[in-house]
């Protein structure tokens, strides 16, 4: 079983080394789609970018894909909620936005810095605010940065598992 897993990882790594730019674009697009739908299992995808592409490219893929995916989700949710629950959404959104009007940027960064809160919950809570798309994107870049650095860093060290394959228990 482990031989099979190592062979798949080796084949994927070989493909990435041969078609690096193509692989980078495919992974980036898949990541954006993944975070647009706020699917569970995001940390595995984030660690995978550090694993396959290294620390710096993995971090860049992670931060931009999660920020763009979240922004797409928020834009879609705002239009959907505004069309379905127009009166209720407008009332609740205006009331909530009045409370955080003076420091909305800081609140957005704090929401993104919270650990343990699922991405879909963060995105839906931001959907309820009347904040510009640029503020949402920039606050996501800033707020997600520490976590994306951690995941990219973990991914580079998980890649050392492939090197462990050549060692035996006697060594």
Q: Care to describe what's here?
A:
The protein has 171 residues and is an all-alpha fold. Helices cover 81% and strands 0% of the residues. It has nine helices and no strands. It has helices at 2-18, 20-36, 42-53, 55-84, 86-99, 104-113, 119-127, 133-158, 161-164. Helix 1 packs across helix 2 (20-36) and helix 6 runs parallel beside helix 8 (133-158).
Describe the secondary-structure layout.
Elements: H1 2-18, H2 20-36, H3 42-53, H4 55-84, H5 86-99, H6 104-113, H7 119-127, H8 133-158, H9 161-164
How would you summarize what this structure contains?
With 171 residues, this protein is mainly alpha-helical. The protein has helices at residues 2-18, 20-36, 42-53, 55-84, 86-99, 104-113, 119-127, 133-158, 161-164. The chain is 81% helix and 0% strand.
